[in-house]
Amino acid sequence: MTVSRSAPDSPTQAPLIRVMVVDDSVFVRGIVARWLGEDPTLEVVATHANGRRAVDDMARSQPDVVILDLEMPEMDGLTALPLILKQRPGTMVVVASTLTRRGAEVSLKALTLGAADYLPKPEAGAGMFNADDFKRELIAKVRSLGAKAQRRRGVADAGRAAAPSGVPAPRAVAGAGAAAAITPRPAASAAAMRLRPYSMSPVAVLAVGSSTGGPQALTRLFTEIGPHLKHIPVLITQHMPPTFTAILAEHVGRAAGLPAAEGTDGTVVQPGHIYVAPGGLHMLVEKTAAGVVLRLSDAPPVNFCKPAVDPMFTAISAAYRQGVLALVLTGMGSDGAKGGGVVADAGGSVIVQDEETSVVWGMPGATATAGNACEILPLDGIGRKVVRLVEGGRR
Question: Is 251 a known active-site residue?
Answer without folding.
Answer: no
